């Protein structure tokens, strides 16, 4: 173990450089954030992930954000266990009818101000599963969505871009339609 | 003559059912099959419904002996198998929810997938409008000083939903009851009438961590039904993808187990190995999880010219890093303390439930679809199947470690022997419709593609098998025009 720790000191870090953030996404999101909430939260956000019916592909890539290459916490972003501790709900999957109520209750349990990010093509509009007897549709069909991150699943870099756009927008000004990146 | 052969001979054989035979059997034979399962002579691979029939796939006594037994349920009822053989329990509850067939004498008659939210009863059978959802009756618990802890469906972590009802007496959990089905998406229903390309994509989205395995099993089922073969290069590329997927999953799992035992250093290091596997997959096939890379008839993407160099560098790096991490896992007493003797699955139970994959292999069940039902290229790659008897978390970690070593060797051998040639047999099959007949990769432990059976003609115009656990496919050859219409959609 000592050798591993020592190597960690000597070897250069594995962490990727942060991806460039789309300026239009930033200004779009900024308009959605009230001045007061920006002041209250600073640049740090707590995220609660909710799987509303995904195939778990999106979860795998969201989990990867915590690995040494993406190191999400360096941006002041972290995953929390309870919606009561969260500023952001990161929701994946087409919302299944069996998960609808749980998602609504999770949203209600999250204190204001709060934002909802829908991650993945299914979360946008139900994806390939739209039209099934067991599916409600995209996340937006159940709770209001502020940002959609496309992809099947979105890569960790893509997820990072979306989350950073949200953080950056805190430094700008307050919109109705969700932004799609 | 084995008992399974005997039963197949007495039943009405379904023609052109490939690659494993299928027979329509009598109610008496159905009962007898249940007894064979209960006595441990056979292993249940799957149990699923159709609107007017119920089928089970079984593994017989002989090596590689598998068959499908179908019972016609004229009055919508059949004798419960779960009454004799508990592993059938959830499968029967699921097919009852979906098709409305009544398993007579079923020991647990509570709904399973149907949470009363679909607005419809029996969506794949005679669908009727549903009433208001009823409260789900959890199993009763009685005793002094017991308390219940409900967890989920939204529970800690970045993870799929599920509801878990812990009943505890102090620190001792005396019962854990699961309620699942929250992510039921109706994949089986969506596949009805879909074209093969769309059905393949649906199969690959059954479970994201095994997207290659599901797409692989579906493709093989379609190919068996149509009596075609993927070109050799495609077969080898599929195995390459499957082994890369296995490596990424095993690295992720070993790290996560260490993390759950509060040893985050190893979690971080295994996370690096997993990420390198995904990046290698992206460099070679254009997608980190290799989603939609396998399609019926072949593969969708060819291996790039510099792919071999990328993978060789990946193999070298991994082979260099992996052993020291394994040594650290093995040497840490505080970690061993939490994995040795924890979560033991007894070999008898693993056999009874036909536990596949590393779970079964850590509990003495020497079954691997790549070995027991050999198919190209695995039949020529010299695969060894590690087996342990202890059945605890530590044994499952060690099976994964041995499989990582195996997969690293297999990837090397595939790179050395990768044949040239086309990667798709016949692109036209992708536009065919899923209709009459079905194929199923049944009883495939997740992440272990391989078993595939398919039926080409006759019978009910519906795919079958429970979609939540098992990838399934439907395809038919022959007179296409007649079946190209879409099947009526459910309301």
Which helices and strands appear, and what pairs or packs with what?
The complex is a heterodimer of chains A (181) and B (491).
Chain A: H1 2-10, H2 23-32, H3 35-41, E1 45-51, H4 57-64, E2 77-79, E3 88-92, E4 95-96, H5 100-109, E5 115-119, H6 121-125, E6 135-137, E7 147-149, H7 156-169, E8 179-180
Parallel strand pairs in A: 1-2, 1-3, 3-5, 5-7, 7-8
Antiparallel strand pairs in A: 4-6
Helix pairs in contact in A: 2-7
Chain B: H1 3-10, E1 12-13, E2 17-18, E3 22-24, H2 27-38, E4 43-50, E5 53-59, E6 66-72, E7 77-79, H3 89-99, E8 102-104, E9 120-121, E10 128-129, E11 147-151, E12 163-169, E13 172-179, H4 187-191, H5 196-203, H6 211-226, H7 232-260, H8 264-285, E14 294-295, E15 298-299, H9 307-331, H10 333-339, H11 347-352, H12 357-361, H13 369-372, H14 393-417, E16 439-440, E17 453-455, E18 472-473
Helix pairs in contact in B: 5-6, 7-8, 7-14, 8-9, 9-14
Q: Give a short account of the largest sheet of chain B.
A: 5 strands, mixed
How many helix segments of chain A?
7
Numbering strands along the chain, what is their spatial order in the largest sheet of chain A? 2-1-3-5-7-8
Low-confidence stretches of chain B: 436-491
Q: Please give the oligomerization state of what you see.
A: heterodimer
DSSP, total strands of chain A: 8
CATH architecture of the largest domain in chain B: Orthogonal Bundle
**Helix and strand sequence of chain A:** HHHEHEEEHEHEEHE
Number of helices of chain B: 14
Range of helix content of chain A: 25-40%
Based on secondary structure, the structural category of chain B is: alpha+beta
| N-end to C-end Cα span of chain A | 42 Å
CATH class of the largest domain in chain B: Mainly Alpha
The side-by-side strand order for the widest beta sheet of chain B comes to 1-3-6-5-4
Largest sheet of chain A: 6 strands, parallel
Taking Cα atoms only, what radius of gyration of chain A do you get, to the nearest Å? Answer: 17 Å
Radius of gyration of chain B, rounded?
23 Å
Name of the CATH superfamily of the largest domain in chain B: Cytochrome-c3 Hydrogenase, chain B
Distance between the termini of chain B: 48 Å
* Largest interface (CB < 8 Å): A-B, 50 and 52 residues
**SS-based structural class of chain A?**
alpha/beta
